[in-house]
Design brief:
The chain has 5 helices and 5 strands. The chain has about 140 residues and is an alpha/beta fold. It has a 5-stranded parallel β-sheet, with helices on both faces.
Length: about 140
């Protein structure tokens, strides 16, 4: 069993947006999580979908956006996680990323802000997509 890699960096009670980064490649996860923190987001990290679900089910955690890789080890991939989020956390936005071209069509049906961020992605593109999603969510 993996050790949870959840990190909370914001002060309690702050109104920062919270992003859950789900990525099994540790260097990729650390780079994007650190960048998001530098941009002012509260960030939680998970190494797979099962760990992400545990974080999402935690009563003391509220996540605004899940940013997840599609291809991960375990019983659930990023598509399965996106479906779980839609069914169990309907107010939570999902952004999927993948290096596999075939993933784009499926992602288009599961992501609110367009199909997929292809790897490798510039970190600023992730922030732009998060801002797009949260602005859209505030209008509804």
């Amino acid at each position: 069993m993996s050790t949870p890699s959840t990190h909370i960096t914001a002060e309690a009670g702050s109104s920062l947006q919270t992003v859950l980064v789900v990525e099994d490649e540790v260097l990729i996860r650390l780079v994007i999580a650190d960048y998001l923190r530098e941009c002012g987001y509260r960030v939680h990290e998970a190494v797979n979908a099962e760990e992400a679900v545990a974080i999402l089910e935690s009563p003391e955690v509220s996540v605004d956006v899940v940013f997840s890789d599609v291809e991960m080890p375990g019983s659930m991939d990023g598509f399965g996680l996106a479906r779980w989020v839609r069914a169990n956390k309907p107010g939570t936005q999902v952004i999927l990323t993948s290096g596999a071209e075939r993933s784009a069509d499926i992602a288009a049906t599961l992501c609110e802000a367009g199909p997929l961020l292809e790897k490798p992605y510039p970190s600023q593109d992730v922030v732009d997509r998060i801002k797009q999603l949260t602005a859209k969510a505030k209008r509804f």
